[in-house]
Amino acid sequence: MSVSIEYIPTGSPVHRLHALTKLLFALAVLTISMLLSQPLPLLLLFFSLLGIAALASVSQEILSAVKGLLKVAFFLVLLQMFFYPEGTVLFAPVSSLPGLAVTDQGILFGISIALRMMVIVTSFLLFLTTTPARSTVLSLVEYLKVPYDYAFLFITALRFIPTFLEEVRLIGQAQEARAHDFSGGGPLARLKTIFPLALPLVMISLQRAERMAMAMETRGFGLPGRTYYRTEKPGAVDIMVIVALLSAVAVAVLLRF
Asked: So where does this one cross the membrane (predicted)?
């Protein structure tokens, strides 16, 4: 999952689009997925995202992230199957609890919820893997008028997620080399094994935060009169893509209501 949220530089047409265009694409996909209620249109939307990922040469990273989402999707389907009361009852696993009956509408609704979740996450992963952090900050600040502090906080959090996961892996390997067992025992024993992992991780994170604060202060972070080394403006292709996205959202709204 960590590799899927890092920018992957390639020379694909998707990478050459403006960051604002790709951000609006992710928001448009989110809006359309919320308007769609049937599994088949959501499945087609999901496969179209995989096609765009292949065009952008990031399909391997996107598919690895999708594999990690399958467990969550399966849990969502099970949850809706047993707690969605509408529709024709197919079977009741517990005869004494008729409220837990599985219905045909419950299965379809659960599949729709799972597909919607996968579509939304995939669209934003596609945005993150094809857009540099600098371009994302510029788009949020210059075009969407998000305060720079919030935009910087958002990008910094995304930037350090892969680093955080890599440190968890390295600390776990180091502690296992010191004969720490992270897999054996019951729930209480497993809870105790978290401390040899959490304490070094917290110390490293605090040291990194202190170094980053010093670096930001020396670079004048927070002072007025901010300038940018290079700015980017949407081109003709970006404008056409944005118009197509707005048209797709409008069609989805008309079909829904």
From this structure: 23-56, 68-85, 105-128, 236-255
pLDDT, tens digit only, all 257 positions of the chain? 444 467 888 888 999 999 899 999 999 999 999 998 889 999 999 999 999 999 999 888 888 888 878 888 888 888 777 777 776 766 666 555 555 677 777 788 889 999 999 999 999 889 988 988 888 888 888 888 888 888 888 878 777 777 777 788 888 888 888 877 766 666 666 677 777 778 888 888 888 888 888 888 887 777 776 666 666 778 899 999 999 999 999 999 998 87
How far are the Cα atoms of 156, 206, 221 from residue 212, in angstroms, in the given order? 10, 10, 11
b/e burial code for range 25-36 (CB count within 10 A of at least 16 → b): bbbbbbbbbebb
Look up residue 194 and give its amino acid.
I
Token digits for 125?
Answer: 């992963």
Q: What are phi and psi of 221, to 5 degrees?
A: -65, 135
Closest CA relative to residue 234, chosen from 28, 55, 22: 22
Inter-residue contact 82 to 92 (CB < 8 Å): no
Q: Do residues 171 and 200 lie in contact, with contact meaning Cβ atoms separated by under 8 Å?
A: yes
Residue (of 110, 150, 158, 123) closest to 25 by Cα position: 123
pTM metric for this prediction: 0.74
